[in-house]
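It is worth pausing here to work through a concrete case rather than discussing structure prediction in the abstract. The textbook approach is simple: state the sequence, then state the predicted structure, then interpret. We follow exactly that order.
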Amino acid sequence: MKLSYFNGRGLAETSRLILAYNQVDYTDFRFPLVVHDWKTYDMTRTEFDTAKSNGELKSSLNKVPFLEVDDRVICQSKSIERYLGRRYNMFGDSELDGALIDSICEVVRDIKDMYQTVRKLSEEEKVEGMTKWFQETLPNKLVDLDYILGSDGYSVGSRTSLSDIVLFSLITQFLDDSDSSLKACPPKLKNIVNRIHNDENILNWLNTRPVTSF
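Step two, the predicted structure:
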């Protein structure tokens, strides 16, 4: 199994966390990437551009991340996450559990999309926008989310599921101010995040993964 992405956390980190939690031996391939300016997407990514021009990325529609399994290519980050969740038995104990897990993941996707609009604000608006996001918008969204989560440190059922990892990734990896994000967590969500964070396999990944700028 080979997971390909740029040398950063970004869209691949949730999948890496799933693999780390399940102690999966895989190839973590990273295209070098130098970011000059996020706003203008001014980047140097020579190896990626070469692979793209050579036709090596056609199976992933010239995008990353993608996962290679048994000579097949799975593209799209959420599809990869769901595949890994199913493969490693992280979709609950019934079809209903699976649907609930998937619904939580989709709520997280909505929150991420909302946050991206704040990230794209002009410099003049961004400070105020970020303040409002972490002090008002995010806490309110997380309270709503907390209502549909299970208890005892699990989002659905009584064992770790894909949605637990997705929630942990949202709070600690995706949002730029993880301290403020954690403070905004209501009780059930905070229990989930803390439980995943204290998992031995997750801690090992966090402590040994490459240090990257994003």
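Step three, interpretation. The CA atoms of residues 153 and 195 lie 7 Å apart. The radius of gyration is 18 Å.
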